[in-house]
């Protein structure tokens, strides 16, 4: 299914790693030998990474305008940022890295860091289990796909984004039991429209299904209509599409996890492939 480019632009990039937001990273504390700079991102938070790579593990954020203490620099992937285009990455006093493309700093010479160990490749997603006898699956919404599972641009995206309109009913993909009903946002409330600068899944629901499968439904417009411990049937209403949490427009972020709860990055699988294995096509 082809989706208008404007819609893709409006929605892709809406989410961060799911679902409980990481605590905001500490502003690096200056040391006697550190060069102090200022994060300049144009408004959004500057992401800190465990290694000098845009796909390395995210370790926190620094607010636009926040101070950073740079102890050394390494040469890595070239980034075009709001301050400069450069292949330099800054190691901060807290041991984490940010791209120098987003740091305004004096022209003071900064020493090169000792050679860093390259980031380990991401662990492969677990295999999709065979269907449990008698189980039946369907779509949570009928809508176009605007962002896939762990794409090159978004390697930590543990689900798919479906461009459903605000207030579209979100249905349980299969029978199961509700195990989580959560407001997940880094600041403010889930009862208002979110924005990309926030972190978190907004209002979301998790359902435990047969065969140790968990599904997650994010960014609901208001508190879900189900409660923890409630049994649901395939196609039962869980809530309605919205844009709460880290989101730039109404859509459903849908995840599938295997190997039982809790639903984490390491046990997420591609929802499209999972549903296909159950005879359900997602666009």
Layout of strands and helices, then pairs:
Blueprint: H1 5-11, E1 35-39, E2 46-49, E3 58-62, E4 67-80, E5 85-92, E6 97-99, E7 103-104, E8 145-147, E9 160-162, E10 169-171, E11 176-184, E12 202-209, E13 213-220, E14 231-232, E15 237-240, E16 252-257, E17 268-269, H2 271-277
Antiparallel strand pairs: 1-4, 1-7, 2-3, 4-5, 5-6, 8-9, 9-16, 10-15, 11-12, 11-14, 12-13, 13-16, 16-17
Name its key features.
single chain, about 280 residues, mainly beta, SH3 type barrels, 5-stranded antiparallel beta sheet, about 5% helix, disordered N terminus
Quaternary: single chain
- What would the CATH topology of the largest domain be? Glucose Permease (Domain IIA)
Using the coordinates above, name the CATH class of the largest domain.
Answer: Mainly Beta
The CATH homology group name of the largest domain = Glucose Permease (Domain IIA)
Largest sheet: 8 strands, antiparallel
Describe the protein.
With 283 residues, the protein is mainly beta. It folds into 2 domains: 31-121, SH3 type barrels (Roll), CATH 2.30.30; 145-277, Distorted Sandwich (Glucose Permease (Domain IIA)), CATH 2.70.70.10. It has 2 helices and 17 strands. It has helices spanning 5-11, 271-277, and strands at residues 35-39, 46-49, 58-62, 67-80, 85-92, 97-99, 103-104, 145-147, 160-162, 169-171, 176-184, 202-209, 213-220, 231-232, 237-240, 252-257, 268-269. The strands form 4 sheets. Strands 8, 9, 11, 12, 13, 14, 16 and 17 form an 8-stranded antiparallel β-sheet that branches. It has a 5-stranded antiparallel β-sheet with strand order 6-5-4-1-7, with no helix packed on it. The chain has a two-stranded antiparallel sheet with strand order 2-3. β4 and β5 form a beta hairpin. The relative contact order is 0.19.
